[in-house]
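Predict structure. Input: Type II secretion system protein H, 189 residues.
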Amino acid sequence: MRQRARAFTLIELLVVIVLLGILVSVAVLSVGGSSGSRELRDEARRLAALIGVLSDEAVLDSREYGLLVNSEGYRVLRYDEVATRWLEVERRKVHKVPEWMRLDLELDGTPLELVAPTQREDDRAGLSGDGERTARRAPRLEPQLLILSSGELSPFSLRLSERQQRGGGWLVTSDGFRLPEARVVEDRR
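Output follows.
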Protein backbone atom coordinates (compact mmCIF):
# COMPACT_ATOMS: atom_id res chain seq x y z
CA MET A 1 0.00 0.00 0.00
CA ARG A 2 1.12 3.36 -0.91
CA GLN A 3 0.98 6.27 1.58
CA ARG A 4 -0.26 9.61 0.44
CA ALA A 5 1.95 12.60 1.01
CA ARG A 6 0.37 15.03 3.46
CA ALA A 7 0.80 18.73 2.79
CA PHE A 8 -1.02 22.00 3.32
CA THR A 9 -3.41 23.14 0.66
CA LEU A 10 -3.14 26.53 -0.95
CA ILE A 11 -6.26 27.77 0.84
CA GLU A 12 -4.85 26.79 4.24
CA LEU A 13 -1.63 28.68 3.50
CA LEU A 14 -3.52 31.81 2.39
CA VAL A 15 -5.68 31.77 5.54
CA VAL A 16 -2.57 31.57 7.74
CA ILE A 17 -0.91 34.45 5.85
CA VAL A 18 -4.02 36.64 6.22
CA LEU A 19 -4.23 35.88 9.96
CA LEU A 20 -0.54 36.71 10.43
CA GLY A 21 -1.01 39.99 8.57
CA ILE A 22 -3.93 40.97 10.80
CA LEU A 23 -1.97 40.11 13.97
CA VAL A 24 1.07 42.11 12.85
CA SER A 25 -1.02 45.19 11.98
CA VAL A 26 -2.80 45.07 15.36
CA ALA A 27 0.55 44.77 17.16
CA VAL A 28 2.04 47.71 15.24
CA LEU A 29 -0.97 49.94 15.93
CA SER A 30 -1.04 49.16 19.65
CA VAL A 31 2.72 49.61 20.20
CA GLY A 32 3.13 52.71 18.02
CA GLY A 33 1.66 55.23 20.49
CA SER A 34 -0.01 58.44 19.43
CA SER A 35 1.79 60.73 17.05
CA GLY A 36 0.89 63.70 19.28
CA SER A 37 2.83 62.35 22.25
CA ARG A 38 5.74 61.51 19.97
CA GLU A 39 5.68 65.04 18.56
CA LEU A 40 5.60 66.50 22.10
CA ARG A 41 8.62 64.38 23.04
CA ASP A 42 10.54 65.41 19.92
CA GLU A 43 9.75 69.10 20.42
CA ALA A 44 10.80 69.01 24.10
CA ARG A 45 14.07 67.28 23.27
CA ARG A 46 14.69 69.66 20.37
CA LEU A 47 14.16 72.70 22.60
CA ALA A 48 16.43 71.33 25.35
CA ALA A 49 19.14 70.63 22.76
CA LEU A 50 18.73 74.11 21.22
CA ILE A 51 19.17 75.80 24.60
CA GLY A 52 22.22 73.61 25.25
CA VAL A 53 23.78 74.63 21.92
CA LEU A 54 22.99 78.30 22.56
CA SER A 55 24.61 78.03 26.00
CA ASP A 56 27.78 76.63 24.42
CA GLU A 57 27.76 79.34 21.72
CA ALA A 58 27.24 82.05 24.36
CA VAL A 59 30.30 80.91 26.31
CA LEU A 60 32.50 80.41 23.24
CA ASP A 61 31.51 83.67 21.51
CA SER A 62 31.16 85.77 24.70
CA ARG A 63 27.69 86.73 23.53
CA GLU A 64 24.35 86.90 25.34
CA TYR A 65 21.41 84.98 23.87
CA GLY A 66 17.77 84.90 24.79
CA LEU A 67 14.68 82.89 23.99
CA LEU A 68 11.41 84.72 23.39
CA VAL A 69 8.51 82.31 23.97
CA ASN A 70 4.94 83.08 22.95
CA SER A 71 1.76 81.04 22.64
CA GLU A 72 2.60 80.01 19.06
CA GLY A 73 6.30 79.10 19.38
CA TYR A 74 9.66 80.63 20.17
CA ARG A 75 12.50 82.60 18.60
CA VAL A 76 16.18 83.03 19.38
CA LEU A 77 17.50 86.53 20.10
CA ARG A 78 20.99 87.89 20.74
CA TYR A 79 21.94 91.04 22.58
CA ASP A 80 23.62 93.68 20.42
CA GLU A 81 25.78 95.86 22.66
CA VAL A 82 26.17 98.58 20.03
CA ALA A 83 22.43 98.97 19.44
CA THR A 84 21.72 98.14 23.12
CA ARG A 85 18.77 95.95 22.18
CA TRP A 86 17.83 92.37 21.48
CA LEU A 87 17.88 91.34 17.82
CA GLU A 88 16.65 88.22 16.06
CA VAL A 89 19.31 85.70 15.13
CA GLU A 90 19.09 85.49 11.35
CA ARG A 91 20.14 81.86 10.96
CA ARG A 92 17.54 80.67 13.48
CA LYS A 93 14.09 81.61 12.26
CA VAL A 94 10.96 81.74 14.38
CA HIS A 95 9.94 78.22 15.33
CA LYS A 96 6.18 77.66 15.40
CA VAL A 97 4.68 74.76 17.28
CA PRO A 98 1.59 72.93 15.95
CA GLU A 99 -1.76 74.56 16.76
CA TRP A 100 -2.76 71.68 19.05
CA MET A 101 0.35 72.16 21.22
CA ARG A 102 0.27 74.34 24.34
CA LEU A 103 3.31 76.04 25.92
CA ASP A 104 3.38 77.07 29.61
CA LEU A 105 6.44 78.92 30.90
CA GLU A 106 7.53 79.44 34.51
CA LEU A 107 10.52 81.64 35.30
CA ASP A 108 12.03 81.09 38.72
CA GLY A 109 8.75 79.50 39.86
CA THR A 110 6.52 82.32 38.57
CA PRO A 111 4.08 81.38 35.77
CA LEU A 112 4.09 83.77 32.80
CA GLU A 113 1.19 84.44 30.48
CA LEU A 114 2.24 83.70 26.91
CA VAL A 115 0.45 85.85 24.36
CA ALA A 116 0.32 85.66 20.59
CA PRO A 117 3.14 87.50 18.80
CA THR A 118 2.53 91.01 17.47
CA GLN A 119 3.46 92.01 13.95
CA ARG A 120 6.52 94.26 13.94
CA GLU A 121 6.78 97.11 11.49
CA ASP A 122 10.36 98.31 11.90
CA ASP A 123 11.79 100.54 9.23
CA ARG A 124 14.74 98.29 8.39
CA ALA A 125 15.72 100.26 5.32
CA GLY A 126 16.11 103.44 7.37
CA LEU A 127 14.34 105.56 4.77
CA SER A 128 12.32 107.64 7.20
CA GLY A 129 13.66 110.21 9.65
CA ASP A 130 14.59 109.22 13.20
CA GLY A 131 11.43 110.74 14.67
CA GLU A 132 9.16 108.91 12.24
CA ARG A 133 11.03 105.66 12.69
CA THR A 134 10.77 105.66 16.48
CA ALA A 135 7.08 106.58 16.29
CA ARG A 136 6.38 103.61 14.00
CA ARG A 137 8.65 101.11 15.73
CA ALA A 138 6.96 98.27 17.55
CA PRO A 139 7.96 97.50 21.15
CA ARG A 140 11.46 96.13 21.59
CA LEU A 141 11.92 92.39 21.70
CA GLU A 142 12.62 91.19 25.24
CA PRO A 143 13.35 87.50 25.83
CA GLN A 144 11.97 85.78 28.90
CA LEU A 145 14.78 83.23 29.02
CA LEU A 146 18.36 84.52 29.19
CA ILE A 147 21.36 82.45 28.11
CA LEU A 148 24.44 84.28 29.38
CA SER A 149 28.06 84.18 28.28
CA SER A 150 29.01 83.13 31.83
CA GLY A 151 27.26 79.81 31.19
CA GLU A 152 24.25 80.64 33.35
CA LEU A 153 20.62 80.35 32.27
CA SER A 154 17.44 81.82 33.64
CA PRO A 155 15.93 79.18 35.96
CA PHE A 156 12.88 78.03 34.02
CA SER A 157 10.32 75.33 33.48
CA LEU A 158 8.59 75.05 30.09
CA ARG A 159 5.71 72.61 29.79
CA LEU A 160 4.64 71.29 26.39
CA SER A 161 1.21 69.63 26.31
CA GLU A 162 -1.86 69.17 24.17
CA ARG A 163 -4.35 72.06 24.39
CA GLN A 164 -7.30 69.76 25.17
CA GLN A 165 -5.44 67.94 27.96
CA ARG A 166 -4.80 69.50 31.35
CA GLY A 167 -2.23 66.99 32.65
CA GLY A 168 0.64 65.10 31.11
CA GLY A 169 2.98 66.34 28.43
CA TRP A 170 6.71 67.06 28.55
CA LEU A 171 8.69 69.42 30.75
CA VAL A 172 11.94 71.18 29.81
CA THR A 173 13.63 72.52 32.97
CA SER A 174 16.86 74.07 34.18
CA ASP A 175 17.92 75.36 37.59
CA GLY A 176 20.03 78.07 35.96
CA PHE A 177 23.39 76.33 36.27
CA ARG A 178 22.85 73.00 34.53
CA LEU A 179 21.83 72.48 30.93
CA PRO A 180 18.10 71.91 30.46
CA GLU A 181 16.65 68.43 30.44
CA ALA A 182 13.43 67.17 28.90
CA ARG A 183 11.32 64.68 30.82
CA VAL A 184 7.82 63.30 30.56
CA VAL A 185 5.18 64.59 32.99
CA GLU A 186 2.69 62.03 34.21
CA ASP A 187 -1.02 62.66 33.77
CA ARG A 188 -2.55 63.93 37.06
CA ARG A 189 -6.15 62.84 36.51
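The first helix runs from residue 10 to 32.
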